[in-house]
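Two proteins, back to back. First:
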Amino acid sequence: MTTEPTTQPRKRTGRAAAIAAFLWSLTAVPVGLWQLLDPEGGPFSHELYEPTFTLPAAVPAWAAPAALIAAGVLGLLAARARPRLWPLTALYAVVFGMLLSTTSPIAFAGYICAFLIPLVVAAVPVMLARGTAGRLVAAAAVAALLVALGLTGVVDYAAVGDFLQMLGARVAEIGAYMLVQVWIVAGGAIWAALTLSLLLNGRGDRPAPAWLAPERAARWGRAASWTAFACALPYGLVRMTWLTPWAWTGGPLDSSMIDPATRVWGLCLGFAALAGGVLCLGMTYRWGTRWPFWMPVVKGRPVPPKLAIVPATTVAALFTCVSLPFVALSIRQDALEMVWAFPFYVWGPALGAATLAYAIRRGVVEAR
């Protein structure tokens, strides 16, 4: 006699999604009021705001913020929706996750990753060193290298300081706008998580589909992980051409036309994309569940599931939410090469599927 596998998320996961949706809906009301009371200075009137779809001119300016307020009020009820009302939460996920989002969050996230790459490279030797003495020696070697780069003029730390000052001022200038953009993407992710929870919890005593069993999830999760990895290659490899005399930026470009600052940022962005692609594979291989042998202190120990699931889910939500705005922007700017260089429309869902499979295998979504 055989039994069908049944799959359900932990109850606390579904409860967390419902609470997050409720709190997000609460914040929708003041955001809508902000735009309604300050139509010129509101977050949806910022110079950087470039909506995927624009409303007809006949629609009054107050209609959109009023609709946002109404959606926030309705969301307070939808957050406690029964499983059969999952189409409503799915609608929230699509509207806020894909229709109201813009490309600003992905640009902001990309530059943050590029900024962190040099810091990570500098920290890796210290992290891999064995023992206190080894770490001190590695830290001293890294510090000596940084000093040498400054003294030889390879790195102009004064210029780096000026750049960071300029970047900080720009971030402060657009901080409120960017915060609202992140809020929109977070809303899409929260409502998508609640929808998934309702779908899985709404099965009652019926057996879950066989593909949600851990052994099945391992197979389709591996395909999803490799798909996500492949999506990281176009942009990462294009940026790696900047290390050669045959640079490519959507077309051949004389390397002399790329100034050093642009070259450094481009390469950092490329390395960030490739590193993210490699981390996608951790969702399906052993080093994603147990720390590899070359990691000091923690080697061989289980990787905490949330350490992989939380950032992977965040990135998957971000990529999925910006996919439609990014394609629309590429078409408007007649830059169709960006559609294949940044395949977020495949990358985000593939990474999300890989993360779900990983969560099933690690028991965060339980199969029994």
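And the second protein:
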Amino acid sequence: MARSNGHKIELTAYDDLFQTDESRAEAKLSKIRDIPIAEIDEFPDHPFKVLLDEDMEQLVESIKRNGVMTPATVRLKEDGRYELISGHRRKKACEIAGLETLKCEVKELTRDEAIIVMVESNLQRSTILPSEKAFAYKMRLEAMNRQGQRTDLTCSPVGNKLQGRKSSDELAEKVGESKNQIFRYIRLTELVPEILQMVDERQIAFRPAVEISYLSDEQQYSLLEAMQYNDATPSLAQAIKMKKFMQDGKLTDEVIQSIMQEEKPNQREKPAFRDERITKLIPKSVPRGRESDFVVKALEFYNRYLQRNKDRER
């Protein structure tokens, strides 16, 4: 360390001083290597699905012809194995193609840094399911909050709340969605798997699903049965009504069934049968939409009756 006029002068390290752009590039390339796939572990709770679809088939063919063009990203774990951060589709494609190694860039990242990089890289996909966004936003926001937390004794609950707001503001800016929309997506992580899958498959609209997420698991499964029984999914108004009953402690199975049997606004009920000779024989107690089931059961009973009479005549 040298001094001049009482001021410290930081001297550049010898190796850094004489390092050329080419040598720096080589140093970076040294972290890109072919790693045995058997030594690479999946990222814990990875929220993005790897689908064996047409895109995967094209990726497999591309890798067979040209190899992996863009390296995957991994980090070295304490046990000497590697953890995959980005490149899950490339890894799967290599396995299908019969390759034993995957070209990877090894990065030194903490757990929370790895989560942030994993989410950022996967949010670039052209198609992202609501469930994928939900768990990705939740994981990243939690990681950002942990990174911003102070560990000294002056840290207060108010400070944690301020940090949480700061993290959500930053996440909203990065992903291009409002904070409210981000929190709506995160609410979807409270849905039971069967209903969350219905959201992914667009059987249930996004906003009603957010309201349903406030129901307990038991209430959600009761709703699932009511949806199957009535062959219908809740509208936003019905979902809000169920949430209000839940908050008042009055959401029973009977209330859920009653709400799901309500006729939705602007919804014209298609008659199950146009023949009045049939409709007038169906009791009014049969729920709307279940008329066909009633008729089928009645016909089954009648056929058994005919069969019994036939057997007696033998």
